[in-house]
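WARN no homologs supplied; continuing
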Amino acid sequence: TGLEDTLFLPDGGRAASNAELVVAGTTEWASARRGDD
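OK structure emitted
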């Protein structure tokens, strides 16, 4: 069982890999840091 089996992407979908989770998390973090909605 990996993180991709227990965590969801911001859109509610399932990640295919840990790398996909990292990319989505980094994108969300950067957006929040910039103040984007």
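The mean pLDDT is 89.
OK
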